Amino acid sequence: MKLSRRKLLVSASVAPFLTATSARAEPLKIRTSYVVPVTNWAPMIVAKKELAKHWGKSYVMEADRYQGTPPMITALANGELEIADLAYSTLGIAIQNAGISDLRVVAEEVEDGVPGYYSNQLFVRKDSRINKIEDLKGKILATNAIGSGIDIAVKAALKKHGLLDKRDYTVLEAPFPAMAAMLKEKKVDLAPGVPPFSFNPFFQNECNVLFDQTAGIGRSQFAFWAMREPFIQKNHAALVDFFEDVIRIERWYLDPKNHDEVEAIASGFLHMPPDRFGWVFRKKTDYYRDPNARPDLEALQHNVDTAADLGFFKSSFEVKKYSDLSLVDEAVARLN
Predict the structure, then answer these.
(1) Rg (CA), the chain
(2) Pairing outcome for strands 59-65 and 28-34
(3) I need a surface site. Which of 8, 24, 313, 319 has the fewest CB within 10 A?
(4) CATH number (domain holding residue 268)
(5) Parallel, antiparallel, or unpaired: how do β-strands 121-125 and 191-193 relate?
(6) How many domains in the chain?
(7) β-strand 220-228 against 84-87: which pairing, if any?
(8) Which of the listed residues 193, 212, 231 is the one where a domain comes to its end?
(9) How far apart are the first and last CA of the chain?
(10) Are 70 and 90 within 8 A, CB to CB?
(11) Entry pTM
């Protein structure tokens, strides 16, 4: 009886320890976000998770789709998202307008306007008689979300030509897949094209490119991943594992020898024939992506200055103070 009681007491004292150990051993849940499949990394990474070495061990990843980058700010603030796929425009909105001062730029996604690579295009119908930016006065412009990266780039370009939002033109929001139809049906007079939607046959055959995004903001760190500092500090080791896997998978996609399989994966996401994806991850037809996932902070600083000048947030700020590249740097050191 004494022995049985002693065993019972030992078991009771060990149980909380075992429960705590088991809880700590659970993989870290990382909820990521994206707007455009194929162009944004998150769903593509999930599609090749067999290349990951740490998935299911130190972390697990989810990829959730959003209409644009502004709604991700709300999700971050509410603890519904760990990695926001933000644009340069929404960084200042998150930090200053939403008060998320612990936000940190942690990795690159895509750069727009790098010489030799793609820049977002702004389309008008060939029969619209719109031949220059000044011709957009009094017209209706489409955007995916007010305050998004392409929205600010367009407004910056128009401002350089004397046209101001609300005073000289109207902006309507629409999802990227609907842009070609909106322009074709003459519901709008100008529509943005981002890969893969910019390769829509209507855009290519019945429209002209009036200008591209560089007309407004030059080279841009168009999209990047951002996280909150407390989450980084608490889970640093697991996050380095995560970025090691992410960069390994991204490099696989960027390797030309894998392009046939890449086309097949892209086809599955967008339900189009694989031969419609000859543009993906290639120069001239796609964005630049850094193989080490390091963002261009100098370009990002310029972009933030432009967004502040347009009044999207109170004032500019030093981007480096809101950046933490330690995760990608440690991950790259492992891979190299």
Answers:
(1) 23
(2) parallel
(3) 24
(4) 3.40.190.10
(5) antiparallel
(6) 2
(7) antiparallel
(8) 212
(9) 61
(10) yes
(11) 0.83
What is the C-alpha separation between 192 and 272, in angstroms, rounded? 20
Residues of the chain with pLDDT under 70: 1-24
Task: Answer yes or no: is 127 within a domain.
Answer: yes
Based on the fold, state whether residues 125 and 106 are members of the same structural domain. Answer: no
Domain end among 190, 212, 234: 212
- 133, 240: one domain: no
Residue 315 domain boundaries: 28-111+220-335
Asked if 201 and 191 touch (Cβ cutoff 8 Å), the reply is no
User: How much is the mean pLDDT over the chain?
Assistant: 91
pLDDT of residue 24: 53
Q: Given this model, what pLDDT does residue 176 score?
A: 92
* Residue 256 identity: P
Contact 294, 328 (CB under 8 A): yes
User: What does the CA dihedral 54, 57, 62, 63 come to, rounded to 10 degrees?
Assistant: 0
Query: Alpha-carbon distance 149 to 238, whole Å?
Result: 30
Segments of the chain assigned E as strands: 28-34, 59-65, 84-87, 103-112, 121-125, 140-143, 170-173, 191-193, 207-212, 220-228
* CA dist., res. 120 & res. 122, Å (int): 7
Q: Both 229 and 323 in a single domain?
A: yes
CA-to-CA distance for 29 and 63, rounded, in angstroms?
A: 11
pLDDT value, residue 311: 84
